[in-house]
Amino acid sequence: MANVDVDAHEIDRWFTQDVLPLEPALMRFLRRNWRNESDLADLRQELYVRLYESARTGLPAQTQAFVFRAARNLLINHVRRSRIVSIEAVADLDALNVAIDTITPEQEASARDDIRQLQEGLDRLPPRCREAVVLRRIEGLSQRDCAARMGVAEDTVEKHMMYGMKALIDYMLGGSGRIQRGAAVQGKRQGLPRD
Question: Which H or E run contains 144?
Answer without folding.
Answer: helix 143-150
